[in-house]
Amino acid sequence: xxxxxxxxxxxxxxxxxxxxxxxxxxxxxxxxxxxxxxxxxxxxxxxxxxxxxxxxxxxxxxxxxxxxxxxxxxxxxxxxxxxxxxxxxxxxxxxxxxxxxxxxxxxxxxxxxxxxxxxxxxxxxxxxxxxxxxxxxxxxxxxxxxxxxxxxxxxxxxxxxxxxxxxxxxxxxxxxxxxxxxxxxxxxxxxxxxxxxxxxxxxxxxxxxxxxxxxxxxxxxxxxxxxxxxxxxxxxxxxxxxxxxxxxxxxxxxxxxxxxxxxxxxxxxxxxxxxxxxxxxxxxxxxxxxxxxxxxx
Amino acid sequence: xxxxxxxxxxxxxxxxxxxxxxxxxxxxxxxxxxxxxxxxxxxxxxxxxxxxxxxxxxxxxxxxxxxxxxxxxxxxxxxxxxxxxxxxxxxxxxxxxxxxxxxxxxxxxxxxxxxxxxxxxxxxxxxxxxxxxxxxxxxxxxxxxxxxxxxxxxxxxxxxxxxxxxxxxxxxxxxxxxxxxxxxxxxxxxxxxxxxxxxxxxxxxxxxxxxxxxxxxxxxxxxxxxxxxxxxxxxxxxxxxxxxxxxxx
Lengths: 297, 249
Description:
The complex is a heterodimer. Helix content of chain A is 34%, strand content 30%. Chain A contains 11 helices and 13 strands. Chain A has a 6-stranded mixed sheet, sandwiched between helices. In chain A, strands 11-12-10-13 form a 4-stranded antiparallel sheet, sandwiched between helices. Chain B is 80% helix and 0% strand. Chain B has 11 helices and no strands. Chain B has helices spanning 2-19, 22-43, 51-83, 85-90, 96-125, 132-144, 146-159, 162-179, 191-196, 201-212, 221-248. Chain B is globular, with a radius of gyration of 18 Å. Chain B starts with a helix and ends with a helix.
């Protein structure tokens, strides 16, 4: 699949605080790529570099074969950033008209209004909209130029569940029209629900990537929860234990070999009680991955 | 075509956004006119000559055009930087020229409205009579004189955050206007303050405007124009440094 954007060994720091430490990334045409990581992992820095807002201190960034800040690049992509707002006294339709004027072949106003579900809000001042409605205006602005590539930096952060699900639907429809979407999120559920491929970044490094299913399989396993005299340290020494942590009276263990582990635990502590075994969701998988990275570091 | 339309829309919506903000329009449009009514029309016209209303026409004209440049341009940039609007626009193909064109156009349109109001008050309420050429010269000088204050506004807006920018602009605006002789003729100032006035851009602009009606201090126009150009360049350098710092963050 053709590559539309790449980052090669990109490093960036704010003063002495490193934000990206050697990130490699390739965005394939037509995919929905989720860049997943906790706050402060370097996601927004990565997006900013791909948007050409500032140059990378080290490494190479390229979008559509050009520098990310080149006008030719800007004309073909759109972006929704984590920003507080737009001029509050301007109306929704005015903001959209203005952004449409930046592009050679913008989408019609009516289509943008419909896509972002802003019907009836066209004449509202931006400042009078709810948080969710303001985000949808930002979404419309990102699409104003009929972009081939759309960057969405934490598109649903701060939204309530209903507004989030609504925006998800709109992002999915975006992907169905053949556009390439790069979104950052720290909602694991969001990456799972929307992405074809997930890159997990943690402390400025891409620690793993794959389809949501692969990411889950990599830490496929079960979560055991019980009250036992076995300590977390003892558990962590075992190869089949991904993580072990105390949670009140209980111990929570993530394992790739639940049966094997359980046999050992029951023999080591016959008084083991209050046992539950459950499948590990992406949330657990994610924690495991980032904790592994932390242990290695 | 797209470029022209972008410049036009940026200017139009920049103007509309401010025109819909009474906290901006009421003080910037009404204060210079109100002060002129008090000091130019009510007090000034009682004097033995029309010297005071004529002098204040030029100096309140300067006071008037500084407002939109500092508040509209300076605070506008600070707010848009704060809210992230500027970052979002930098990610689009918007030409940077459209952004600055819009801000300057807005300052000129509000400046022109203030100048028109002042001219009307001075001619019809205070009875000031100038040659037609003098009216045009003064209007031209005042409008062109907006630019150094746009640069000053930009310098403030590139460094200060939204609310801090408002405070800084207020801190600069009134003392600078007073010390430049916009309220009281510079000739009544003590020697030291008259020298100090040279350090303020409104002094030089007001002297140019006062030259039209032969009420200036008699320094050369070249001095004043050079000073205004030098101030503008210095403000632009400060602004560029401010934006570079922000981009590096």
